[in-house]
Structure formats: C-alpha cells, structure tokens
Write a structure and sequence with these properties.
Elements: E1 17-18, E2 21-22, H1 24-35, H2 41-44, H3 51-59, H4 63-71, H5 76-86, H6 92-104, H7 112-121, H8 133-140
Antiparallel strand pairs: 1-2
Helix pairs in contact: 1-4
Length: about 140
C-alpha cells in the first residue's frame, strides 16, 4: 500500500456476499465508485480483470454489459438477478465452488507468487495470518489490522 486510501474510495471486502455469492458486491461497488470518480486509484487499472474477470466468467456476463447495467441503478441483489436472467441461474454448487475459490485465492495456488510479492512490497512479509488475497486486500484497505 503506497498510502492509506480514503475509506470512501473503497468497495467492500472480497468476502462480502450478495445472495450467497462472495465478491459480487465488491465488483459492483468498484463499478459504482469508478463511475462517480471516487474509486481508489490503485484499483482502477484492474477493473474487469483478475477476480472481476473470474467472477464474470462464473456469471457468463461481460464486464461492459455489467458496467452498463450497474449504471442503470438497482441493488446488488437486483443486478445479480439480472445477470442470471441474461445467462443462467446459479445453483448451490456454482456458489459453493466460486465461494471456495475466491475465499482461498492465493493459498498454495497460481496466485501465491503474486500474494508473496504484494506482501513484500507492503512490508507485510512477517504476517503469517495473511494467507489469501482476500486477507491481503482487507489488510491493505484497512478493514483488518
């Protein structure tokens, strides 16, 4: 973290849920914050990429379509319902698999080297409690000590 972000410029935690789907409210929150010009500058470059792209893949929705629909308004739940109406409804297994993936991302997987680098760059190498990207994000954005 280069400087502490203004809390008003941050979306919620990656582990927050909409209708049982983790990360979705964070992705929608980033879209809203970016549209209002408030999104923390360090998050702008990855809009629609990384975990956003993975979540969009589960939903079978393009970033551009989601961005356009979020601009029309509605609650996170209404927007998630729209996503499913456009493509397919998520079942309990879809949610379980996605939630497990996003909750453990960075823990002994293809993202581990990125997590190690981010922790090093942030002076958090000694923080053994930060084992996933979600944990790192919550510390980096000031939600966890």
């Amino acid at each position: 973290m280069s400087h502490p972000p203004d809390p008003a410029s941050l979306p919620c935690s990656p582990l927050d849920e909409t209708d049982g789907l983790k990360y979705f409210p964070r992705m929608v929150g980033k879209i809203r914050l970016q549209a209002s010009g408030l999104l923390w500058e360090e998050l702008v470059a990855n809009l629609g990429k990384g975990s956003d792209a993975a979540c969009l893949g589960v939903l079978h929705i393009s970033y551009e379509d989601l961005q356009a629909h979020v601009a029309q308004g509605g609650s996170d739940s209404e927007i998630l319902t729209w996503c499913q109406e456009m493509t397919r409804p998520l079942n309990d297994t879809d949610r379980l698999v996605w939630n497990s993936y996003i909750s453990k991302l960075g823990w002994n997987d293809h993202i581990t080297p990125m997590l190690v680098k981010r922790k090093a760059d942030s002076g958090l190498c000694g923080r053994d409690d930060i084992q996933t990207m979600a944990h790192y994000i919550d510390v980096d954005e000031g939600r966890r000590p």
